[in-house]
Amino acid sequence: MNPNRAAVEEAARFIREHDRFLVLSHVNPDGDATGSALGVVLMLEQLGKEYVVVNEGETPSKFDFLPRFDRLRNLREQPLTESFEAVIAVDCADESRMGDVRPLFASDAVLLNIDHHPTNDGFGTVNLVRPEAAATAEILFELAEVAGIAFNEELALCIYTGLLTDTGGFRYSNTTPRVMEIAARLLTYGVKPGEVAERCLEEITFAHVKVLRRALQTLQLSHQNLVASLCVSTADFTAEGAQREDAGGLVNYCRNIEGVEVGVSFVEAEPGVVKVSMRARDRVDVSAIAKQLGGGGHAKAAGCTIKGTIAEAKQIIWNALEPALGVKHDE
Fold first, then answer.
1. Tens of pLDDT, residues 15-48
2. For residue range 162-171, what is the model confidence (pLDDT) as tens digits?
3. CB neighbours of 45 closer than 8 A, spacing ≥ 6?
């Protein structure tokens, strides 16, 4: 039997064998994490299962068009005291990306780990990890087929959103023929691609524009112009009345500069905690750098969290990029 097929069938058995689930995605969820978590929820509903779907933090409001978005529980604002014997984690590159959720696991809890990050360390009891998949949503499509789930517009919308966002609107190199085949199939269920793209990729808040204006003032080139970076501090968020989600996507302004190999954004989520996002072209595997620092991701898109000031975080990243690029930092 194809090992990929065997892993999917094992995941399907996991879902069938349990009745109540804790469903979660990674902290600071994106379109694939949110679409996949809600896709799992819709699958569980079809199978007559009970669930609670959570995230350790706020889910960006841009995804509130997705079905069952109102069921997503922000554990920082709505803590849980219940414990769960069956857990499904989606799009979490490693256990730490789940956030502080272990207190919700029963002592004998079993966990289904569904993910596509090459840095995934197989932290589940059952691991459905496919690094060759463009998105966790692509894996869910296959899981739904094997589990006998009936596709409808709601489920198709969740899976399509994950595919769209993790392929950058079907522009990144992970856009395979299989991705396009799945996307085409999902459109037959009534998904409106223009509307999804508008909400997920085009529409931005005015607060984002104001944060961007401040961030671009910090833009700098280094490492012989191979690295571009920008910074956002907590003071910037406060001054503009913005939320952390309003800093989403800023790293792409760095990476997209002609001649730049690596773009980096340093976002101070709270005093002493800096979220680092990295985007690469060809020469550097940024997932390797992120993993060394307790993070993870993909070869061309990865991130990590560094405790310290922005200046300290920059020095750590500069030191890691020097051998990767073969050039010295020259700020």
1. 999 999 999 999 889 999 999 999 999 999 999 9
2. 999 999 999 9
3. 51
Is there a contact between 170 and 164 (Cβ–Cβ < 8 Å)?
yes
Whole-prediction pTM: 0.92
The whole-angstrom separation of Cα 310 and Cα 233 is 8
Exposure b/e, 283-300, CB count within 10 A at least 16 = b = ebbbbbbbbebebbbbbb
Cα(40)–Cα(65) distance, integer angstroms = 16
Angle at alpha carbon of residue 310, lines to 309 and 316, rounded to 5°: 95
